[in-house]
Amino acid sequence: MTNETTIEPTDADADLSPTESNAADEIDDATRAKLLAAENRRLREAYARSRRSRYRKTAAALAVVGLLALALGALAPSVREVLITLGMTGVFAAAVTYFLTPGRFVSADVGDRIYAAHATNGAQIVDELGLRDDRLYLPDGDGRARLYVPSSSDPDLDSVADRRATTDGPFVLSEPRRGVLLESTGAPLLAEFEAGLPGELGATPTTIAAQLCDGLVEQFELAASADPDVDPAGGRVTVAVENTAFGSLDRFDHPIPAFLAVGLAVGLERPVRLEVAPGGERADWLVTCRFETRSG
């Protein structure tokens, strides 16, 4: 004879509906995303402090050498000219090392002009070939994604879940998926972004969107703000962007929307459809990435 114990669900368990459970999961995702963003900022600040400390130590060493040479020059008349020259050089090098940041900056205006040539060429190719206005970012299964612009004769545009950037491109000539498959400006940005992440790129829309927006503002400084609005169930991420570095976001393969679309395509491992529109009173621009949801 055996004793069987049956555990009945409590009232609290019964009260937790599937909708509330999903909401709790989303709250957890949002919390994790905020923690990841905070950790990214902390690591970047720590790295910046480390670099400043290293250069300040170098500046201090140069200053000591320079001052020592000046002091010896005052005590040794026979080599005074050489020591004073060496001392002044050391002091000057110390000042330059201390006050100038060890980085190279390209102005936003120069960057925008460089990108404008790419945007003009891409838009002209699309117009000349009579392609659609749709911009699809397809993962290649190897941690990258490329821009696919389909032909107007593509009959299966509403179902792109099985599409991958598996051909070499740039011209896709096989029916019915004719179009162009191009390297995106967002791909190298994502590679640089992932290299600086403390962990891996997220796997949920909420986490990925938070990471990418943080990268746009904090790491690349391509925008003053990027505020994500995520609807995982609806397969949508909309980012409100303000004060962009490279002008209008509705141009061909703009780095900011492309970075968001490529990041989501790679992180979610599914195609992403990109839409860009003026933000009205909400923001300067609204960047919307749509993707097919997966059940289970």
Question: Can you give a write-up of this model?
Answer:
- The protein has 296 residues and is of the alpha+beta class.
- The chain folds into two domains: 11-104; 108-296, Muramoyl-pentapeptide Carboxypeptidase, domain 2 (2-Layer Sandwich).
- The protein contains seven helices and eight strands, in the order ααααββββααββαββ.
- β7 and β8 (285-290) form a beta hairpin.
- α2 packs antiparallel against α3, α5 packs across α7 and α6 (205-219) runs antiparallel to α7 (255-268).
Using the CA coordinates, give the radius of gyration: 27 Å
For this structure, the CATH topology of the largest domain is Muramoyl-pentapeptide Carboxypeptidase, domain 2
Overall number of strands = 8
Global structural class: alpha+beta
Work out the count of structural domains. Answer: 2
Proportion of helical residues: 40-55%
The CATH C-level name of the largest domain is Alpha Beta
Pfam family, one: DUF7982
Region (Disordered): 1-26
Protein name: DUF7982 domain-containing protein
Keywords: Membrane, Transmembrane, Transmembrane helix
Features of the shown structure:
single chain, eight-stranded antiparallel β-sheet, 296 residues, alpha+beta, 16% strand, Muramoyl-pentapeptide Carboxypeptidase, domain 2, 2 domains
Question: Could you give a short description of this structure?
Answer:
The chain is 49% helix and 16% strand. It is an alpha+beta fold and 296 residues long. Strands 3-4-2-1-7-8-6-5 form an eight-stranded antiparallel β-sheet.
